[in-house]
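LAB NOTEBOOK - FOLDING QUEUE
OPERATOR: T.R.
BATCH SIZE: 2
PURPOSE: Compare the predicted structure-token outputs for two unrelated chains run back to back under identical settings.
PRIORITY: normal
REVIEWER: second-year student, initials M.K.

ITEM 1
FIELD SEQUENCE / FIELD STRUCTURE:
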Amino acid sequence: MENTQNQTDTYALSIMTDRNRALAATVYRPKDEVKAAVMIAPATGIKRQFYHNFATYLAASGFGVLTFDNEGIGESLSSDLAKCDASLISWGRHDMPAVLDALQDEFADATYHLIGHSAGGQLIGLMPNYQAIASVFNVACSSGRIKNMDMPYKLKAMGFMDAFIPLTNLTFGYTPADKIGMGEPLPRSVARQWREWCNGAGYIKTAFGKSIHTHFYDELDMPALWLGFSDDEIANSKNMDDMIRVFSKMPVEKRFFEPKEFGLNSIGHMRYFSSRTNAKAPQLWQMAVDWLAKQQ
């Protein structure tokens, strides 16, 4: 990776949403012509810096890339967290569309693609400007339904969802997920919706007709590749299938792997984006490059 920094220009960007909230973002611009540009939509409570090495890799392969912090996360937190009214729905309906617009502004005359990690792939059916997305590459994206999880992880998930989230929301006005290794502190509505959706029929579907009355999940028809891993206790195969079914018109190619196929002990829910994973199994990141190249 030593030479990739010299092949790209990296700079900060502030993106204003239609909620009048500023999102912190980073642009990765290849030195040569950009034919395809990618927005990396993050997992719940994960800062954009987590995807830096992966974004640099994509840019070194010739793709324009934009990473961002959702409202209330990282450098996109502009107020007391207890006063932040961001939600999973606002992330999908307002943050992600604004980022896609910014991607088009930054990289004119390109095709536009979304790489989603967990929630980043789940929320795209809320984007009113989804038509601009030529393809989707999802990693560890699933319904997150607790009912489909295996023991003993199911007990851990139940404790987090049914005890930690409501107790800390009540006590602090937000969920300090960072205290138990679950990303950044979460705005209360983000955590509350996360709990409701995972306890119900899974991400998104639980909210249809309740908190979500307008969506585009039954309209998205761009090609998509979804990657999953057998040691991912959240995005297991059942939960991946649950989420894929919500995108009723999306032609999905699902690939589900054992880490040992790549000589790795674990990949799980997060390690696909690790530079250590790429060093040991470069074919994993190459899958993203090959997919994007095929969509041009």
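ITEM 2
FIELD SEQUENCE / FIELD STRUCTURE:
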Amino acid sequence: TTDRIIWFIKEAVPLFMLGVLVISILSITSALYYIGLGLSPITSLLGLPPEASIAIILGFIRRDIGATSLVEMPLSFAQTVIGFSLITLFLPCVAAMIMIVKERGVKTSLAIFLFVIGYAVFISWILRIIIPLFIWV
């Protein structure tokens, strides 16, 4: 256990720090906004506001930051459930994804990446359809 903890600290902590650095650079340069514009078709498909795309990106870099970004947005109950479902089912953070690539290889990791993105969007889209049937939104 001690060896695994030391290995994790040596491998993952620098990746988390790199993620924070990337978030900071993207935020300062406004690149985060422009990357988010590319995700706007997904957010509109799910009934989320365009700003939610930034939370999705942040959720990929660090899931807790993505969730915090969603909490700060004025969303309806249905949008909140859909947004959190998407972030929860979405890919692991960048650090975990790099570990998956190291353990499984690029080809398998890419297959996992594409499947999980499709699955998360599909389930969130289904929630967009189902939630209004059961609650007043």
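REVIEWER COMMENT (ITEM 2): The two ends are 48 Å apart (CA to CA).
FOLLOW-UP: none requested
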